[in-house]
Write a structure and sequence with these properties.
Number of helices: 8
Mean pLDDT: 80
Low-confidence stretches: 36-45
Largest sheet: 5 strands, parallel
Helix content: 55-70%
Structural class: alpha/beta
Radius of gyration: 24 Å
Strand order of the largest sheet: 2-1-3-4-5
Distance between the termini: 64 Å
Shape: globular
Order of helices and strands: HHHHEHEHEHEEH
Length: 212
């Protein structure tokens, strides 16, 4: 009987030694380990493994609602980048001006999961009112609203007149390259994955300027 007990103790010693070694190593290196753990938590916040597929579904649904297509590879790339950009997106604020907000619902949800606060405006007047009331990091506008093919330009001109210097993204189902791109537009795209990449580009620049 005592021989069995001694054997069990001997078998247990190696595992106990590893636990002791790991504990000592953690306390010795905790000043270096804790910042890494915090960053890892931040990166995994919006789209952990369990929700990664849901992010891909939102991209696919957003593309379908806007009459475009996104490949599975592109969808994974977008969600992966959102996941890694969590620190830059968290706490940011976006204004989306579009008279058909229902088409954008999946992408709005995707951006919100990424950490952004998203406000919606149905027309230029509503958008300008919100821009004067709140601080935004980025504005998304469609090309035309209420049969006005120059709706985006009118918004941009009013923002310039009011000295509202917020990066502008134009998201539209069709783009005429002969029209050219206004110099105050940060990005112009017809694809939902391109739009999300542009939003991340803007937010990363915002955080860089703030030194965050």
């Amino acid at each position: 009987m005592w021989q069995d007990v001694i054997v069990k103790v001997i078998e247990t010693i190696p595992s106990m030694a590893w636990v002791l070694l790991a504990t000592v190593a953690f306390f010795a290196l905790r000043s270096e380990i804790l910042p890494v753990l915090r960053r890892t938590k931040s990166f995994s916040f919006p789209f952990g493994t369990a929700h990664f597929s849901e992010g891909i579904e939102l991209i696919q649904e957003g593309a379908a609602r806007t009459g475009t297509s996104v490949s599975p590879r592109q969808s994974r790339a977008v969600v992966s980048r959102l996941d890694h950009a969590a620190e830059a997106l968290e706490g940011g604020r976006l204004l989306w001006v579009d008279d058909l907000p229902g088409n954008n619902r999946p992408i709005v949800e995707l951006l919100q999961r990424g950490g952004l606060s998203v406000d919606l405006a149905l027309n230029t007047a509503e958008g300008l009112t919100l821009l004067q009331r709140h601080h935004y990091d980025v504005v998304i506008t469609d090309l035309r609203r209420d049969d006005d093919p120059q709706a985006d330009m009118r918004l941009i001109k009013e923002m310039s007149r009011l000295e509202i210097g917020v990066p502008i993204l134009v998201f539209t189902g069709s783009f005429d390259p002969m029209r050219g791109v206004h110099p105050e537009i940060f990005g112009y795209t017809t694809d939902v994955d391109g739009l999300v990449h542009y939003v991340i580009d803007v937010m990363e620049r915002v955080r860089f300027r703030k030194g965050i």
